[in-house]
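User: I'm putting together a teaching handout on how sequence relates to shape, and I'd like one worked example. Could you take NACHT domain-containing protein from Planotetraspora mira, show the sequence you're using, and then write out its predicted structure as tokens right after it?

Assistant: Happy to. First the sequence, then the structure tokens directly below it.
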Amino acid sequence: MRGLPGWRRVAVPVAAVAVIIAISYALAELSESDKAANWAQLASVALGVLALIPPVVGTWRERRPGRTSTPDQVDRAEQALRVLVRAQWREEILIRELDEPSPLPVRWRISGLDVMDQDDRVDRPRFLRSWFGLGRVRFDGRTDRMPEMAGRFRKLARRRLVILGEPGMGKTTLAVLLLRELLEDPQAGDPVPVLLSMSGWDPEAESVHAWLVRRLRENYSALRAPDFGPDAARGLVAHRRILPVLDGLDELPDKVQPRVITALNAAPTTEAVILTCRTREYLTAVSLPGGDVLAGGAVIEPRPVKNADVIAYVRNRLAPRQAADWTGLLSALKNDPDGPLADALSTPLALWLLGKVYIETHADPAALCDTARFPTAEAVTEHLLDNLVQATFAATPPDHDPADPHDHDHPFRPHRAWDPEDARRWLSFVAHHMSATGTRDFRWWHLHRAVSRRWSTLVGGVTVGLTVGLTVGLTSDAIVALRSPHEGSLWNALLFGLAGGPVGGLVGGLTGGFILERLKGSTLEPAYANLRLGGHLRRLAGQLTLGLVLVLPVGMLAAFALWRVAGISSEVGDFIFFGLVVGTVGGLTLGLNRWVTTPLTSDRPQAPLITLRRDLQLVYGRSLTFGLALGLAFGIAGTLVNGFSGLLRGVEAGVAFGIAGGVVFTLTFGFTGASSIYFVAVSMLRLRGRTPRRLMSLLEDAHRMGLLRQAGPVYQFRHAKLQDRLAQLHQRYGTAGNAPASPHDTREVERS
């Protein structure tokens, strides 16, 4: 609800409740059915009213300022974070195939550009440089000798490093390998290296400290566990317990890049930092008015990959029966080291693409030697990018074999079989969506941004309203007819439910959709249900109290409407008793639901698919629980004030209302959950052919095959060039969903 004035935060939900009560009064007055049917209809309307309250008040999450974790809690959080990051990147390095037996030796050295701070601020004092002014800062290293590079990094005066390079030269790969080396062999006092994408950050809008804290909370939700205190992420940043590995300065707008460097220089919490950026963008950023170099930071660049290393790398990856087909390409690399093919394959990215598109698919690479077809290195790279997705899906069968009883999960194969062309079309849309929103991170709980807000509100309101109205109307009228049987009563009740239910449901659904649309100020985050009482009793008591404060007035309001309109009792005491029972049960249930709603925590990093499943379980579990509890409260309280005759009938009616209420809360309160909104967005995009029904399964399989990388609960394309190329490809797809005619289509790759 950020951005709404304080009075609106109260006026909007109160106005919504008043409108729905007015509608219920009008329906009751106009209806010709008996008092019992009116009572049932009003009870169902009251359920709808209560269903709107939790998602509204759920946006009013007040934070207590000034609370921090203790030093012991920060120490435990640091240890847990180290375990999480180590496990995360061990798996990622395997998936990215960065631990090959014969890795490509990319050499790095201090940049020759004027983009580095004074030598004595970068490196520790050396005898010749201190006394005679001779020599420069040295930072030579190779990616196949990472222990040496990690040792050299630790010897820097402030442990600040800028990794420059052109696209595809392995900047992120070096950062990941250095992060892994620092984790595997930590020294006393070493902070925990954490790789964070810089996409979407503006230090003028969010300080370095606040941004780091927020990203830690987003990527490592386990830090929000109660065992680590109220704000472990803030404690880790404030006490310099993390080493930020900031990837992709060049992905920020040009005007923002200098501000980031200035902010890092001024921030006291980023003494040690690793930064990656393209060479041209970094040179521009430090040269702009107000720009500056990273204070105390060594700046390194890759040397061109040697042609002999490229030939040796390709030859080592070939199977024996492939050697004959690759004779021509290897000869072209050797005989024309300055040609477009050799130029393209001088980058680690292009070599990885070559392996995916040609080596692993056993395709004939002879066409790559045609300089008329591929006159430039860029043309070669674009051809490989255009064919990457289809080639990867076509060459990698699912790991499940029903005929093999000993079949097991293979980490580099998909779980399902996907049509290669469909996979490329769907991933192209995902890339387009990410580029359109200006990010390199795919957060499944942000997918609704790809759908028109007006259409999503309208469709959601109509769908929810019709479903809720029919369910509540038919259930409530049927139970009344069954408890008061006479000729034609069941048929009349069903007709009344079919007629009145959708009307009230549509009004309530569209009203609720409008309210939730206006209150959509804060981003929903995935969560899970935590039922452990240890150390959480104080928070449970607080949430139960808050639930009573919020829902008791609503219960009293609903009881007053039933008393005045339906005439369930002539005694004022009965109306008060009814309101207290319903309000108390509703308040305690709301508090309990809020208490169990916990940011995802685990002993390992949270994968996107895991966060989706756990959030889905939470949303629908608490919604059904809420509905059943309130239904029983309505039934029993109604019995005690003569709404029904007999306790058994009250319980039966309560269960019936509870089932209807469970559906109501699932489709209203649950409809506002992160997973619910995601599924609505997927359904709408599926109808337009933009995504598959199992989008997360597709992304998980793409990750297993190395097309995507995982950073906590988000996915990223393996390389920014791949995302940009697929986003461009999406623009070329026709409205019918057919792939455009492309000179670099996979069909041109001839199988050997």
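A couple of points you could highlight for students: The first helix runs from residue 6 to 30. The radius of gyration is 31 Å.
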